[in-house]
Amino acid sequence: MSISYKELGLVNSKELFAKAVAGGYAIPAYNFNNLEQLQSILMACVETKSPVILQVSSGARKYANATLLRNMAKGAVEYVKELGCEIPIVLHLDHGDTFELCKECIDSGFSSVMIDGSHHSYEENIALTKKVVEYAHSKGVTVEGELGILAGVEDDVVAEESTYTRPEEVEDFVKRTGVDSLAISIGTSHGAHKFTPEQCTKNEDGVLVPPPLKFEILEEIEKRIPGFPIVLHGASSVPVEHVNTINENGGAIKAAVGIPEEQLRKAAKSAVCKINIDSDGRLAMTAAVRKVMAENPGEFDPRKYLGPARDALKELYMHKNKNVLGSAGKA
Ligand code: G3H
Ligand code: 13P
Ligand code: ZN
């Protein structure tokens, strides 16, 4: 039995992206795998009146069960009503790697899917993406494609170095596939170690400062497909305070470096209208859990450590919406 996202009260990304591009802000795309992550995303987005993209990876589907996740998204729509603010909610498949996975998600209530064909040849990427677009559009579901490869791990594929998006390909790719948005590679990467210490300089406090993103590539892309919605993956900033809290409380996260907020603010003002953040939430949550555990070694009620983790996550997401992406007040 197939379920439409409309029955769940979700929306696709079409109108949200059009408004975000015109308004010079980006919609947050936050990954979730469990109840506390979902609660904090929703509480933060309701409180800041921000539209939101709830992002589910194939790892999340394996971890949390696809049926439960779908019903959590349905619950999310009812929950935000209860909180008194009906923000638009998109349920999005993050890094879909096959037509079959995208179809399964579309048939089970997702309103948006990513088909990440960037590890294939250009022509194979086009063929795969087009096939997903044809099916998705027949159901009103929007599709994100990708051109260029981010350094780090994508779909269990490890790339040593980024292959930046080639601006000369974007127009052809968008035209031939019919995608609704395009993820690009301009120097971001997944995880908490986006740059090696050798790639960075140090500021006066000894904090590693990464090289800037390749804004010249973004500008060239914008010239070729004006106003087309662009997506930035790997956009966590890796807040030093959370890394320090983790390390001060028994953790060992070394030389972690993210994307400075200033650069994300700049990107959000451009055609970048969706910014993906997962690692920052993982760090905030882990920092809070480690702190409670270290300070209260006798604690064994999960609510006593997941509750503070949820509060820390909510604060992080509110900060992103208000001070980095500019999505606050846009619901
Ligand atoms: O892009 C990757 C996201 O952070 C999801 O990560 O595949 O470990 O769930 P995951
Ligand atoms: P981060 O690892 O930088 O949070 O990126 C997440 C992401 O791109 C999910 O698709
Ligand atoms: Zn990603």
From TrEMBL:
<dbReference type="GO" id="GO:0030388">
    <property type="term" value="P:fructose 1,6-bisphosphate metabolic process"/>
</dbReference>
<feature type="active site" description="Proton donor">
    <location>
        <position position="94"/>
    </location>
</feature>
<dbReference type="Pfam" id="PF01116">
    <property type="entry name" value="F_bP_aldolase"/>
</dbReference>
<feature type="binding site">
    <location>
        <position position="95"/>
    </location>
    <ligand>
        <name>Zn(2+) 1</name>
    </ligand>
</feature>
<keyword id="KW-0862">Zinc</keyword>
<dbReference type="GO" id="GO:0008270">
    <property type="term" value="F:zinc ion binding"/>
</dbReference>
<feature type="binding site">
    <location>
        <position position="233"/>
    </location>
    <ligand>
        <name>Zn(2+) 1</name>
    </ligand>
</feature>
<keyword id="KW-0324">Glycolysis</keyword>
<feature type="binding site">
    <location>
        <position position="116"/>
    </location>
    <ligand>
        <name>Zn(2+) 2</name>
    </ligand>
</feature>
<dbReference type="InterPro" id="IPR000771">
    <property type="entry name" value="FBA_II"/>
</dbReference>
<dbReference type="InterPro" id="IPR011289">
    <property type="entry name" value="Fruc_bis_ald_class-2"/>
</dbReference>
<feature type="binding site">
    <location>
        <position position="146"/>
    </location>
    <ligand>
        <name>Zn(2+) 2</name>
    </ligand>
</feature>
<comment type="similarity">
    <text>Belongs to the class II fructose-bisphosphate aldolase family.</text>
</comment>
<dbReference type="GO" id="GO:0004332">
    <property type="term" value="F:fructose-bisphosphate aldolase activity"/>
</dbReference>
<keyword id="KW-0456">Lyase</keyword>
<comment type="function">
    <text>Catalyzes the aldol condensation of dihydroxyacetone phosphate (DHAP or glycerone-phosphate) with glyceraldehyde 3-phosphate (G3P) to form fructose 1,6-bisphosphate (FBP) in gluconeogenesis and the reverse reaction in glycolysis.</text>
</comment>
<keyword id="KW-0479">Metal-binding</keyword>
<comment type="pathway">
    <text>Carbohydrate degradation; glycolysis; D-glyceraldehyde 3-phosphate and glycerone phosphate from D-glucose: step 4/4.</text>
</comment>
<dbReference type="InterPro" id="IPR050246">
    <property type="entry name" value="Class_II_FBP_aldolase"/>
</dbReference>
<dbReference type="InterPro" id="IPR013785">
    <property type="entry name" value="Aldolase_TIM"/>
</dbReference>
<feature type="binding site">
    <location>
        <position position="190"/>
    </location>
    <ligand>
        <name>Zn(2+) 1</name>
    </ligand>
</feature>
<dbReference type="GO" id="GO:0006096">
    <property type="term" value="P:glycolytic process"/>
</dbReference>
<protein>
    <recommendedName>
        <fullName>fructose-bisphosphate aldolase</fullName>
        <ecNumber>4.1.2.13</ecNumber>
    </recommendedName>
</protein>
